[in-house]
Amino acid sequence: QFFAFVHYWEPHCPYNQPKEYRHLFRHQKGDLSDLEVFKAKAGYSYVPGWGKTGNLWEGEEAKKSIQIPDKGKSGPMTVSHRLEIPHTGERTIDLYDGEIRYLDHLISQILDVLQETKTLNDTVIIISSDHGEELGQHEISGQKMYGHVGLHEPVVFVPLILWQPKILPRGKRIKGFAQHVDIVPTILDLMGMKKRPKLDGKS
User: Fold this and answer.
1) Sign of CA dihedral 171, 188, 197, 201
2) Shortest CA distance to 190 belongs to which of 160, 171, 161, 162?
3) Pick from 42, 125, 166, 195: CA 20 to 30 A from residue 178's CA?
4) What is the 3-state secondary structure (H, E, C) of the chain?
5) Cβ atoms within 10 A of the Cβ of 180, count?
6) Could you tell me if 145 and 84 are in contact, meaning their C-beta atoms sit under 8 angstroms apart?
7) Where on the phi/psi map is residue 150: left (φ > 0), alpha (ψ -120 to 50), or beta?
8) How many of the other CB atoms lie within 10 Å of CB of 129?
9) Which of 160, 157, 158 lies closest to 174 in space, CA to CA?
10) Which residues contact 79 (CB under 8 A, 6 or more apart)?
11) What was the pLDDT predicted at 12?
């Protein structure tokens, strides 16, 4: 028996998937806007392993940050004004679609290993996300929003996919409301284990 939690960053801004997945989708003619051509007033942040991020901190605005006391538990929390690199409408959607296709590839690698080890049909697979992405569907102060900003449906309505051919019906859709807090009780239920009394959520 085993349990594995696998976290992938994709699909998530900055959309900097490998090049073979960056140009798969094109809603508009011409070259896609790559991260290198995005302009900003301040320097980019860097994260080891994947380079430039899409978020940055504007120097002057960062000086306006405030500190919120945390009752001595972990020190004060600093809140600053965050800026976003500009996006380019449908070309940004093209990059986002490429990120989804890249994630499909990454998940397929896990499924291939489970198939090779003959454990696939005995494994419960759950796929979800902590948030979705705005892709210009809504505006704030007259500006189209990209990324996980606000509480519109594209941000809060995320997939929750469960697969286990021996105990779960194929293609069934649950119409009721579900939350991330329900995932652990569902796993325990599928494993035939009792839910702990103080555990939030339901199967």
Assistant:
1) negative
2) 162
3) 166
4) CCCCCCCCCCCCCCCCCCHHHHCCCCCCCCCCCCHHHCCCCCCCCEECCCEECCEEECHHHHCCCEEECCCCCCCCEEECCEEECCCCCHHHHHHHHHHHHHHHHHHHHHHHHHHHCCCHHHCCEEEECCCCCEEEEEEECCEEEEECCCCCHHHHCCCEEEECCCCCCCCCCCCCCCCHHHHHHHHHHHCCCCCCCCCCCCC
5) 12
6) no
7) left
8) 15
9) 160
10) 65, 66, 67, 68
11) 84
Residue with tokens 């449906």, as numbered in its chain: 153
> Please, what's the b/e burial string for 39-55 (b: 16 or more CB within 10 A of its CB; e: otherwise)?
eeeeebeeeeeeebbbe
Per-residue pLDDT of the chain (203 residues; tens, 9 = 90+): 889 999 998 888 777 788 888 888 876 554 444 443 333 333 444 333 444 444 433 344 333 444 445 555 555 444 443 434 445 577 778 888 999 999 999 999 999 999 999 999 999 999 999 999 888 888 887 877 877 878 899 999 999 999 999 999 998 998 888 899 999 999 999 988 887 888 888 88
| 59 phi and psi angles, rounded to 5 deg | -50, -50
